[in-house]
Every structure is written in C-alpha cells, then in structure tokens.
Write a structure and sequence with these properties.
The complex is a heterodimer of chains A (178) and B (428). With 178 residues, chain A is mainly α. Chain A has seven helices and one strand. The C terminus of chain A is likely disordered. By secondary structure, chain B is an alpha/beta fold. In chain B, strands 10, 11, 12, 13, 14, 15, 16 and 17 form an eight-stranded mixed beta sheet that branches. A five-stranded mixed beta sheet of chain B has the order 2-9-8-4-6. A four-stranded antiparallel beta sheet of chain B has the order 1-3-7-5, with no helix packed on it. Classes of the chains: A mainly alpha (178), B alpha/beta (428). Strand 1 of chain A pairs parallel with strand 6 of chain B.
Chain lengths: 178, 428
C-alpha cells in the first residue's frame, strides 16, 4: 500500500514538473502562480487524507494544462500523469477501506498494467493527433466533437446493473428482526 | 461528484474548449482521459454470476460464546477484475476476529472466502447474505448484486440456576407440584389430625395422640402439594427501560425471566410468558422441557419497543391468564404503573414484581456531583414510595441491585415466606 502511495505521489510530482515545463515553454509563466496553489492544495489534501482532493487537484491541473496548449507534448504528459495520480489515489482509498485484501500483489499488478496501457494509449493518441496536425474545417471539428460527446453520453447512460433482491431482502430482514 | 462524473466533466470540458477556441491541441488533451474512460467502460463487469454458500456455527449458542461465520463465493461467470464482498452482519454484533468484508479479483471458477468470529449476544438474529460489488479496474463503473445465504443465530439468555422460590399462589392445579394446596391429603407438610378411617396407612397413625385417648386411633393428615399456573410478564416498554447501552435494565429482566422460567418449569408448574412492549409476544402456559425451550426462544427474540397502546400497563391483556394465576412481573416500573398494578391485584391476581434497579444502574454512569447525589436520593425516595404503595395493595415488590447475582437475590428475598407470613403459619 505504501508503494502505491509513493507511486501516486511520484506521479503528482512528475505531472507538476511536466506542466511547469509546458507552461514555461508556452510562455505562460504567469500560470505558475495558480500551479503553486494547485500543488499546495494537492499536498494538503494528501497529508490530511481528504478524499475529495484528488478530484479537485485533477480539475485544477486540467485547467492549467489547457492553458499550456502551445506545448502539447508536455501538456499531454502532465495530464496523463495527473490521471495516474487520480486513479492511484482512488485505488488506494478502496484498498484502505477494505478490512481485508485478497492477493494484494496480483490485484495491484493487474491494476498497474491496465492503467499503464490505458495511459500510454491515450498519451500516444494525443501526441499522434497533434503531430499529424490535421486541418479540419469548422463543420468537421464540430461533428467530431459532437460524436465524442454522444459516445460519452452513451457510456454514462448505460445503467449499472442493480440486483432487485437487495431491497426485497433488506425489508424482509427488517420485518423478521422486528 | 462520482469518479466517472468528474472524468466526463474533464473530457467534455476539454472538447468543448477546443471546439470553442477552434484549437486542436486543447481538444487533443481530452484524448488521454477519453481513452481511460473507454478502457474502464470496456472492462466493466457486464454480468455477475456468483454462487454463495454460508455457514454460521453454532446456530444455537449461549451468551459470550464464540460464533464462527464462513462464507464461500464462487465465480461462475467471467473474470471480475475487482470485487468487494461483504457479509451482512446483523446489528448488535461486533467482530472479534477476521473481517466480514474483503476486496480482491476473482477469476472464472475461483472461490473467495470470508471467515470471521464474533461474540454471541442474547437475541435471535438473521444473516440475510452477502453483497457483492464488482468494478472495472479503475473503479469508475460498479455493479451490485445481493447474494442470498440466509442463516439464523439464536443466542438464548443466560439461565442462573435457582434453588427455590417461595410463592403462595391462590389457586393450584390438579397435578402434584411444589405449592401447598391448603387441602389435606398425601404430602410432606403436616396439616392436621383426624380420626382413623379404615384404609389409612399404618405409618400415618399418630401414636402419641392416640395414646391419650384409649380405644381410639388418630391419623395424621398432610397438606397436598400441587403445581400452579404462573404467568411471567416481561416489561419490554422502551419508556420503562433505558434503551440501548449498558445502563439498560432490560437484559437483567430477560435474565431473571429465563432463570425463573427454568426453575418453575423444573418444579412441574405450567408457565406462560407475555412480552409486553412494542407488541405482544404471548407464549401459552404449558409445562415441560419443550415449554422451557419455547420460553427461552421468546426471551431471546424479545426487544424493547415503542407503542402508544402498550405505553401503560393498563392495557395489559389479563384475560390471557386464567383467574387467580400467579403473575410475576419483571419490570423497573414507571411511576404511573402503580395504579394499573393495583387494578390487576384487585382482579384477584397474586402479583410479584421483580424490579432490576434502573436508578442504581444509571447512577454508575453519572459523575458523583452534589446535584447527582440529590437526584439519586430523590429517585430512591420515589422507589420506596412506589414499593410501599404496592405493599399496601398486597403486591410484593423486590428491588434487584444488579451488582448482586440473581440467584443470591432470590435466595435472600424470596426463598422463604415473609416473617409475618411465617408467624401465621405459612410454611416453606
């Protein structure tokens, strides 16, 4: 568990470093001040163990990454590492919440493999897209954007299956206990 | 905000900003979180097929005994990357060893096991089953499934072995038992002397008395001993007991009822039980070992409850008890109960009240300030006044300081007749 925490902190530091470099190379040094604030918030949340702070930190980091858009490689690296930090914080919280974890090593290894694969694919796709410098018109860009939004909406709309007996059994138990 | 919601906000925000600014690099920043979201969605558990097997040993226990729970969950479907299993532990039980929840991955055909132990506490409890939460590796999407594995745990109240209990029921039954029937016949206690009648056993002849009257024989007559019908009433009103926590007198009332039922049934009496609280739980008066089990089970499932109807003892359904049944009420008593008890006594029910000392129990958890001492003194005065009013109505009330074991209380207070009863000749 400590190794995962250290890895998450490393991702946080690397993300901040990549973003700082990106901001400096994009001539947005002024954004280093809010970056300092975001880092402070992240460290405070990490020290206090506040569960909502990784998400806040990610949102702040993403906003700053968008402002460092002129150096896309650094921005993509920063956003991927921020995502890794955010993911590992959540994973760490789930591990700590469970009184017992079966085969922690296997679980962690598989998680890191899947996470690494997803982030490499995402970062690679991002870099490739910017490297290709596709020139698209307003209509094509809008269509691509809307298609992406529709895809996200479709993913989110699919409801998580919730077994109906949960409610029935819970009430049954309450009746019998009473 | 949920994790998936935050991620969607990031992706949509970046895409919208990129489109608004007509900046492809900003839109390209949305790709890493978008791919992360898509991978999470692709790996989310679509179908959970789990089989559960649960065992609670022993299912019938005594208070303080260790209870072991074992749960086995087999995955009959595809691999679950991250699955959290949690057995539903009934309220009021605390774990001493192991865990009722675990996290791990579950391959196809693999079995996950949960094992934990807890200390049994009086009551009847149901374990409905376990809850399985399966997630994708990133924890973005989750599916919940309830796995029914119904088990029950019955922990009977502690029974303290009592040696004897003095009661003088006004009506006795037809079968032999421990109580004087106020009728001459065969028995062990001397009842009187009468003239010899043919057929009387020789060993019953009072030779000393016969010697004083030459030519006549006299026979000793013994008092018949019969069983009685006894109704135990357990006060489960939340208003009369402190609800929850150690200062509650209710567990003591339950223990007293169990011990009394054990002794009275052992003596051959017919014993019934009425739990009077949130609702009525009536166990018909019968005798024997099976009845003992019935009463212990009823006591195990007894719990404090609120009810506007049963808030006062005036609605106690005395018709459940045959006339002249000896009633034993186990209750800390409220001030307003006195009138209702006197009314019950007026309907010819001999009544014995055993009150666990609620004031003493609560006093142990209070600071020793001057105001507490004054309040305690006032409460004691009130208790004494209630006892006196009940005594004037012919109701015996025994206040039980719960630091004293129940068997000692009975031995001290109720194992022999009161001095004034002994003076007028009441025995045993």
């Amino acid at each position: 568990v400590n190794r995962i925490r250290n890895l998450a902190l490393l991702c946080m530091v690397l993300s901040t470093a990549a973003l700082s470099v990106g901001l400096v190379t994009a001539d947005r040094s002024i954004a280093l001040a809010p970056l300092g604030l975001v880092i402070a918030i992240g460290l405070l949340g990490e020290l206090r163990g506040w569960s909502g702070f990784p998400t806040l930190w990610l949102l702040g980091q993403v906003v700053l990454c968008a402002s460092a858009g002129r150096s896309p490689v650094w921005a993509i690296a920063a956003i991927s590492l921020a995502l890794a930090y955010w993911d590992l914080s959540g994973f760490l919280r789930r591990l700590r919440h469970a009184p017992r974890v079966d085969e922690l090593d296997v679980l962690t290894r598989r998680h890191l493999v899947v996470l690494g694969g997803a982030l490499w694919m995402g970062a690679g796709a991002g870099v490739l897209t910017t490297a290709l410098a596709i020139e698209a018109g307003f209509g094509a860009s809008m269509a691509a954007g809307l298609a992406a939004l529709a895809g996200i909406a479709a993913i989110l709309r699919r409801p998580a299956p919730l077994d109906p007996p949960v409610a029935a059994t819970a009430s049954g138990q309450a009746d019998r206990n009473s | 905000m949920s994790r998936v919601g935050a991620l969607a906000l990031v992706v949509c925000g970046l895409l919208a900003t990129g489109l608004a600014l007509f900046d492809a690099t900003v839109a390209a920043l949305a790709l890493p979180p978008l791919v992360y979201l898509v991978v999470g969605a692709l790996l989310r558990p679509s179908r959970i097929d789990l089989a559960i097997e649960g065992r609670t040993t022993p299912s019938l226990a005594m208070p303080g005994e260790l209870i072991s729970v074992e749960i086995g969950v087999q995955n009959r479907g595809g691999r679950l990357e991250e699955v959290e299993l949690e057995d539903t532990v009934p309220p009021g039980l605390s774990l001493t060893r192991g865990a009722s929840r675990s996290l791990g991955s579950l391959g196809s055909g693999a079995v996950a096991r949960l094992a934990y132990q807890m200390v049994a506490q009086t009551g009847l409890r149901f374990f409905p089953g376990a809850r399985a939460v399966a997630r994708d590796p990133f924890g973005l999407f989750e599916s919940v499934r309830f796995l029914a594995a119904e088990r029950s745990l019955l922990v009977r109240p502690t029974v303290r072995k009592l040696r004897r209990l003095y009661l003088r029921p006004s009506r006795v039954g037809a079968l032999a038992g421990p109580y004087s029937a106020r009728v001459g016949g065969s028995g062990t206690e001397f009842f009187g002397i009468r003239g010899y009648a043919p057929g009387d056993p020789w060993r019953w002849i009072d030779w000393k008395h016969s010697a004083r009257f030459p030519g006549r024989l006299f026979t000793k007559v013994f008092e018949q001993e019969r069983m009685a019908e006894i109704g135990l009433i357990l006060d489960a009103r939340a208003g009369a007991n402190v609800e929850g926590g150690p200062p509650s007198a209710f567990p003591y009332s339950v223990q007293a009822a169990a011990s009394l039922a054990d002794l009275l049934l052992q003596q051959g009496n017919r014993v019934g039980l009425l739990v009077y609280g949130g609702h009525l739980d009536w166990t018909l008066a019968l005798s024997g070992k099976v009845q003992r089990e019935r009463i212990l089970r009823a006591l195990a499932r007894a719990s404090l409850g609120h009810s506007q109807v049963f808030e006062q003892l005036r609605n106690l359904p005395s018709r459940l008890f045959p006339p002249d049944t000896q009633l034993i009420l186990l209750s800390p008593l409220l001030r307003g109960d006195v009138t209702d008890l006197i009314g019950l006594r007026a309907r010819h029910f001999p009544l014995l009240v055993i009150s666990p000392d609620q004031v003493g129990l609560e006093a142990r958890f209070l600071d020793g300030g001057a105001s507490t001492a004054t309040a305690l003194r006032l409460a004691r005065v009130e208790q004494a006044a209630v006892s006196r009013r009940l005594a004037q109505a012919g109701i015996v009330r025994v206040l039980w300081d719960t630091l004293l074991p129940f068997e000692e209380l009975i031995e001290r207070e109720l194992s022999r007749p009161a001095p004034w009863l002994a003076t007028i000749g009441a025995r045993r």
